[in-house]
Write a structure and sequence with these properties.
Elements: H1 9-21, H2 23-29, H3 34-49, H4 56-72, H5 79-90, H6 94-120, H7 128-147, H8 151-168, H9 179-199, H10 201-216, H11 222-230, H12 244-248, H13 250-270, H14 278-294, H15 304-328
């Protein structure tokens, strides 16, 4: 409904159909888990921004919404920066509205920090996933690529590092049951991860590029297999991802992804005809943002938010191709 402020009804209809029936999104949105709430909030935020009034409560609400978005998924922790850039470029009361927006965002973060403090005796707003993510997902692949060893050997290397840290800090496994102590461990893992990444910069870049290519290939059927055929039977990494089911769909997935990206690219070029491009800048910026903060994991399920932003470009591209077909005829 908000898109009707920007585009004709055909573009809006195709966008709605894409968001409703594109399989990759559908698997996330078929039941109410945190992913579903996260995707819904993204749609709500973009709908809220379209035609937003330069008023106190409007931008306070926007800040609260972006804060709640962060509560659902850690990857949106820096999303507020993108919104601030948008406000600074496209609003008249730049400083005033930015301050109001940040107030709403900080209200959520302060409440989160106080909640964490009451539970753990430590005020913090960064989730543990944000601290040990590199240690869990990127560092092992860097060491595998650098030393040409398998995952079991990497596990031994990382376990040895962790045991050395425990000895140096006089920490045992029982101590790690206390959240305050676990947070110290996550801090160590984060610092050690950055050290390994920087000391092996060339290898790190190679691994990240490879992971990003995996990330960019959508898997519209993967969740059916992942959750219903392999889950609870074998670990995910050696279950579905190493299976024949996964291998046989690689080529169809690549073709499917290329079709989606090609239509979106046509839509992106068609945006040059649109006078008011500010909302499209925000959509494209969000696409870049979520790719940068998640692609290094290599798991294409984290690319699902990108399809939300791509839906408008896909719709515009689809309409352009229909016009082209009519012109050729």
């Amino acid at each position: 409904k908000k898109l009707l402020y920007l585009f004709d009804h055909k573009v809006v209809l195709i966008t709605g159909l894409f968001l409703s029936f594109e399989p990759t999104i559908f698997f996330f949105h078929s039941s109410f888990w945190s992913e579903s709430i996260f995707l819904s909030l993204l749609l709500i935020i973009f709908g809220f921004i379209i035609n937003i009034k330069d008023r106190f409560f409007s931008y306070l609400t926007l800040g609260l919404l972006v804060g709640i978005l962060y509560l659902q998924r850690t990857v949106s922790i820096y999303f507020f920066i993108l919104v601030i850039i948008y406000i600074l470029f496209f609003s008249e009361k730049k400083i005033y509205l930015t301050s109001i927006f940040l107030t709403g965002y900080l209200i959520v973060l302060i409440l989160l920090g106080v909640s964490n403090y009451k539970r753990s005796d430590v005020f913090y707003i960064t989730s543990t996933q944000a601290k040990d993510g590199f240690w869990m997902y990127l560092v092992p692949n860097i060491l595998i690529e650098r030393d040409k060893i398998d995952f079991s050997e990497v596990t031994k290397v990382l376990d040895k590092k962790m045991n050395s840290w425990k000895l140096e800090n006089n920490i045992n496994d029982n101590d790690l049951k206390i959240e305050k102590t676990r947070l110290k461990m996550y801090d160590y893992q984060q610092k050690e991860s950055f050290k390994i990444i920087l000391n092996n910069f060339g290898v790190s870049v190679k691994v990240i590029i490879k992971k990003t290519l995996h990330f960019l290939v959508f898997d519209p059927l993967g969740h059916t297999y992942f959750f219903h055929k392999y889950d609870y039977k074998t670990p995910h990494s050696i279950g579905y991802f190493k299976s024949e089911d996964h291998k046989k769909f690689i080529i169809p997935r690549v073709i499917y992804s290329l079709i989606i990206y090609s239509v979106c690219l046509v839509g992106l070029f068609s945006c040059l005809k649109i006078r008011d491009k500010k909302y499209l800048y925000l959509l494209f910026g969000s696409l870049i943002y979520f790719t940068l903060v998640q692609s290094w994991i290599g798991n294409n399920r984290y690319a699902t938010p990108n399809l939300i932003f791509m839906s408008v470009f896909f719709s515009l591209g689809f309409c352009e191709l229909i016009k082209l077909k009519k012109f050729i005829k």
